[in-house]
Write a structure and sequence with these properties.
Elements (H helix, E strand, L loop, with lengths): L1 H27 L5 H15 L10 H11 L5 H13 L13 H36 L4 H15 L2 H12 L23 H39 L2 H8 L4 H20 L12 H7 L4 H10 L3 H29 L7
Helix pairs in contact: 1-13, 2-3, 5-8, 5-13, 6-8, 7-8, 7-11, 8-10, 10-13, 11-12
Length: 337
């Protein structure tokens, strides 16, 4: 086990290098950039004053702008400089926010972590028991009705569901039970500690439903199908023929094997800090990680994009390793070599 973990950790190094190199190269082919953005702003300001935009900035000034952003050097030199900084914990400065990239990312982490961790825990806490119950009541009225509800939730995009929830429950046209947008009220600072917690949770109900709906449906059906598959196997028939109650055989034997596919999804716990959904955040006006990624791409804030790619890649690879370890905990017969 220890040798396997050590090898996997070593393999992560070339994998991460490959990911960052590929993304850095792709970024070089994207039209525009911080230099072009700065030049466009200067020319726009000049045109607003009635001056000639073409003469607003000289070639030497353009070269100074490139030097300021580090674009006066070849791409491979800029990559190695970025990589050297990343190895010591510095991801550079954000062009858009004029702040360290790590600081910009960490600022968005709490809200994304809340959404990710809460939806993760609620999904598993509900979907595993619900999947087991659906398997036990397979083809019953409960199974049919719940499957219809789950399927509807699965096919509706989260942002579309968010719009419907706002219309029906946030003062759109019917009920006014929940806030329309944001994560806190305007008078948040004046509330007591308990009032702040309740106010925050009140704002989070509708976005949380949108975050959970797709994963909820997938996990429930994965759990149900896993249980049904195990119930068909010979060892389950043998257990019941020997006098073991079907319920006991399910929980003692079938459940453990059915949880192996679920363990694969557990790797996502490492990437919860980047649990962002752009369109859901747009609908509910939440300044989370999804909106940060989108704004950074649109504004060509390469340092922020590369920083998010690096951190999410590391966490994703650690999550894969974590899921492999979970396999051995669920089923001791599995050996990692």
């Amino acid at each position: 086990m220890h040798n396997y973990i050590a090898r996997r950790l070593l393999y992560m190094i070339p994998t991460i290098l490959g990911i960052t190199i590929a993304c850095f190269v792709l970024i070089q082919f994207v039209p525009g950039g911080p230099v072009e953005e700065m030049i466009a702003q200067i020319r726009s300001a000049s045109a607003a004053r009635g001056a000639n935009p073409a003469a607003a900035i000289s070639p030497s000034e353009i070269e100074n702008i490139k030097k300021n952003f580090g674009f006066d050097q070849p791409a491979h030199i800029r990559y190695f400089k970025w990589l050297g900084g990343a190895m010591v914990g510095s991801l550079g400065e954000s062009y858009s926010y004029n702040r360290p990239v790590l600081e910009v990312i960490v600022e968005r982490m709490p809200i994304s972590l809340f959404f990710g961790l809460t939806s993760f825990l609620l999904s598993y806490a509900v979907c595993i028991p619900l999947g087991i119950l659906k398997a036990r009541k397979h083809k019953s009225n409960f199974d049919t009705i719940s499957s219809i509800v789950i399927f509807i939730g699965y096919v509706i995009p989260g942002y579309a569901l968010g719009i419907l929830l706002i219309i029906f429950f946030a003062g759109g046209s019917f009920l006014d039970w929940f806030p329309l947008r944001g994560i806190v009220s305007d008078n948040f600072e004046l509330l007591s500690f308990g009032g702040k917690v309740l106010d925050f949770l009140h704002h989070m109900v509708l976005p949380m439903i949108c975050y959970m709906v797709g994963e909820f449906a997938f996990l429930t059906m994965l759990m149900k199908n896993g249980i049904l598959e195990e119930l068909k196997k010979d060892y389950m028939r043998t257990a019941t023929l020997k006098g073991m109650l079907p319920r006991t055989a399910l929980f003692r034997h079938a459940l453990k094997n059915a949880l192996i596919p679920i363990a694969t999804r557990m790797s996502e716990i490492f990437t919860l800090v980047f649990a962002g959904a752009l369109l859901i955040e747009k609908v509910f006006d939440i300044d989370g990680m999804g909106l940060l990624v989108w704004n950074s791409i649109v504004s060509r804030d390469y340092n922020v994009v590369m920083g998010i790619i690096l951190i999410s890649s590391i966490l994703t690879l650690l999550g894969r390793l974590f899921s492999d370890i979970l396999y051995t905990m669920i089923d001791p017969r599995i050996r990692l070599q």
